[in-house]
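Table S2 (text version). Query chain:
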Amino acid sequence: MKSIVLLLTSLTLLATADAVQAACYADYKAKQDNPLRLHYGVMRIDTAPCTMSDTVKRTVSDRLAKSGWQLLQVQSVFDDSGLETRESDAGQYFLRF
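Corresponding C-alpha cell output:
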C-alpha cells in the first residue's frame, strides 16, 4: 500500500512540475528573397531548459522555412517576463509562427 501511495505522489509531482514550467520564447530575424523582405518576430518554442541551443535554432529555422522565410539569427531565448516588451517590435510577426 505504501508503494502505491508513493507512486501516486511521485506521478502527481511530475505532472505539477510540467504545468508550472514557464513558457519559452525566441526572438529572431528572418528574410525572404526576390524581392528582399526582412522581419523581426517572436515565437513560442517547446524546450526545457529555456536556453539558447542548436535545437532552438533548428526549431525556429524549420518553422520559418515552411512559410518561405530564411532564419538569419535567433537573438535570444526568454520566458514570459520578456514577452510584453517585444510585442510592439514584432508587430504582425508576434507569435505568428
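Notes on Table S2: Residues 22-93 form one domain. Helices lie at 2-20, 54-65, 83-90.
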